[in-house]
């Protein structure tokens, strides 16, 4: 059970407030994203630009951390379509990965590297090693080149941690499940949406094929209870939601129904 960007539907995404809320609601893993600043700091953020989530503007890669730290990361969050902004002006900031690791020492993380910047790859792996979090961290990237760089850096440092799948890995795995290709080198987890291009992607056949190769299937981003129930019935290994409390209630109810 993953808290997507923490509890991104109830609190400003990818902030300590959001992460702490997700954990309090029973999230087993925190899904998040990282970028690197102009001066080499690894920060927690999904977008390359800060304008959607803060009162500032500009690309993270072009801003120094001091400038980022001055922004209000709760400024734009609204639970009711803009009628209210309950987290505005409360001192919520864009956190660093180091800060999050220190504040939440027992939490498990699913971290997506949002760029292939060599500084980001090296720094993320270094932080995982420094904080001894290899057994509680899954590293992911959409681009095959970025994931290859992460794998190489892990090997160089002698760090063993779980890896996700690139888009190319996912496409190759889906083709293999359909009998159209050989299965690629299996990642630890396929992290995919329930459908793609209007067609179901997470199917009983795909889940069975993945499990036959000891590959987990994690599905994003699921906020409706009916869809949560459907995917759990298919036997997926993880569901990512902006509302981890809602997901926890569904999971607990399903377990109770099975006795």
Helix content: 25-40%
**Which structural class do you get from the secondary structure elements?**
alpha/beta
What's the overall average pLDDT, rounded? 95
Inertia-based shape: globular
The rounded Rg comes to 18 Å
Termini Cα gap: 20 Å
* Total of DSSP H or I helical runs spanning 4+ residues: 9
Order of helices and strands: EHEEHHEHEHEHEEEHEHEH
Uncertain regions spanning at least 5 consecutive residues: none
Q: Can you summarize the main beta sheet?
A: 9 strands, mixed
Q: Tell me how many strands there are.
A: 11
Strand content: 15-25%
Question: Explain this structure to me?
Answer:
The chain is of the alpha/beta class. The protein is built from nine helices and eleven strands. It has helices spanning 16-24, 65-69, 97-103, 118-130, 144-157, 167-177, 204-212, 225-234, 244-258, and strands at residues 2-4, 29-36, 42-44, 109-113, 137-140, 162-163, 189-192, 195-196, 199-200, 216-219, 238-241. The strands form two sheets. Strands 1, 2, 3, 4, 5, 6, 7, 10 and 11 form a nine-stranded mixed β-sheet that branches. Strands 8-9 form a two-stranded antiparallel ribbon. Strand 10, helix 8 and strand 11 form a beta-alpha-beta unit. Helix 4 packs across helix 5 and helix 8 crosses helix 9. The two termini are 20 Å apart. The model has no long low-confidence stretch (mean pLDDT 95).
């Amino acid at each position: 059970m993953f808290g997507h960007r923490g509890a991104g539907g109830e609190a400003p995404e990818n902030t300590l407030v959001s992460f702490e809320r997700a954990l309090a609601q029973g999230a087993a893993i925190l899904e998040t994203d990282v970028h690197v600043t102009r001066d080499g700091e690894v920060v927690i953020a999904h977008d390359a630009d800060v304008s959607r989530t803060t009162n500032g503007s500009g690309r993270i890669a072009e801003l120094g951390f001091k400038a980022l730290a001055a922004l209000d990361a709760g400024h734009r969050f609204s639970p009711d379509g803009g009628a209210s902004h309950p987290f505005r002006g409360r001192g919520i900031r864009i956190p660093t990965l180091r800060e999050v690791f220190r504040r939440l020492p027992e939490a498990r993380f699913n971290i997506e590297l949002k760029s292939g910047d060599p500084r980001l790859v090296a720094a993320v792996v270094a932080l995982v090693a420094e904080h001894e979090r290899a057994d509680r961290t899954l590293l992911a990237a959409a681009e095959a080149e970025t994931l290859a760089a992460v794998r190489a850096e892990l090997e160089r440092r002698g760090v063993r941690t779980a890896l996700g799948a690139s888009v190319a890995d996912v496409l190759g795995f889906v083709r293999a499940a359909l009998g159209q290709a050989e299965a690629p080198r299996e990642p630890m987890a396929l992290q995919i949406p329930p459908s793609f291009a209007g067609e179901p992607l997470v199917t009983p056949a795909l889940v069975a094929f993945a499990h036959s190769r000891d590959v987990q299937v994690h599905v994003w981003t699921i906020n409706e209870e009916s869809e949560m129930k459907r995917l759990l019935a298919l036997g997926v290994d993880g569901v990512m939601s902006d509302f981890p409390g809602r997901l926890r209630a569904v999971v607990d109810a399903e377990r109770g129904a099975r006795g």
